[in-house]
Amino acid sequence: MERYVFISYSTQNTEIAFRIKEYLEHKGYPVWIAPTDIPVGERYCNVIEKSIRNCRCFVLLITPSILRSQWIDKEIERAIHYRKPVLGVVLEPAELNDELRFLLSNTQISDCVRSIDDGDPALQSVLRSLAFLFEEGERQAKPLAVDEFSAVRSERNMGKAQLIATAKGLIEGFLASPQRAVEVLSRLHFKEVNTYLRLLWEEVSAEEKRTIERNLIAAYRRVRLDPDVTGRREYAVKGQLIYYLTRFCAPTAEGELTDTLKAFYEGEDNVWQRQSLAYGLASAGEFEVPCDYAQKVFAGRDEDVVNRSWTLIFFGDVRDCDPYLYLDDGTAGWNKAREARLSRLKRNDPKAMAYRALDLAVLFAFYRSRNWSDFDAVDYEVIRKAEVSSPEMPKSVKKFNKSIQKELTDRLKAVRDTAQDADDRLGCT
């Protein structure tokens, strides 16, 4: 996330939009605004999408003209999609239509700005909001090595007694209340603690497990509505809630908890949390949600880079990086992640088959991101021989698995044959 304000406005308000741009820049806030910040020859839609995704906050200039602008609705939708803070700055009173009222239902909207100067109280209120958002953004953007991730590293260096005590603290928090569950999960916990948590879980009674399940579900719903749980804390808490619900509360393929998690997936717009839900539901033996997520990875949507990035950190190919800020650029090694996915492709047990769509999609995404050059003959044979259907799979999942397996083997074979032809030519010279 970069440090600038994205200004969204109707072209009928160009003059005042640029006056506000100059005013904000004079106050020290970098501003991105179309069309001046769109490089010559670039497509507007691509540049605007990227600029919204990378901005610190999104400022909408509200006048009656925005009601007639198709671009405005799209820009607001993308800002909401990327969970950007949206500030509505009223320049002229406007009766919003139903669509804009819906899109801006959770947006802070200023009083009407009468003049672009330090004497306008509404504009000064906007500046105070920007100051808060930029300060909050700087706090959340600190590398985890300074705060949360240093705690994770120290957790990895804990002795057995400390790890057990931390695991006990998690269970006690889960049992206490939804609010306490949120508090104990505000810090990331990795496999070292979870190994002992799994051992302690065997001592938890059936009634206590039901209480924990109810509290974790309520905590997830609470986090979605709590304005104090934002940024990386929100990502960490929700991701861990999903992990413990799916890995410890033992949902079944068609159980009530699984139905609740599927509803969470449908209502979740954050790609990191949708990934957690997809993998969690796969662990429960559910097929359709993991396949839906795998299709998005295969299509190269936001889920692709998020999945690759998280996978690299999870398996340790990339270390000491914030899992919610790190983005794979196609250069990091991925040997551990690759071996884990190929290893599961060799298995045909029900759990492995539930992950099949995800494993094939993430392998495809990694090869694609590295220009199809990072593989060997062993990879090809494992993928070619992998079983991609089972009696329990819906037809749509079987169809997707077969299609991506064919795409993978065709592409890898083509790369292999090209390399062989090059070797043959070199041998003839």
From TrEMBL:
SUPFAM superfamilies: Toll/Interleukin receptor TIR domain. Keywords: Receptor. PROSITE patterns: TIR. GO terms for biological process: signal transduction. Residues 1-131 form the TIR domain. It holds the Pfam family TIR_2. This is Toll/interleukin-1 receptor domain-containing protein.
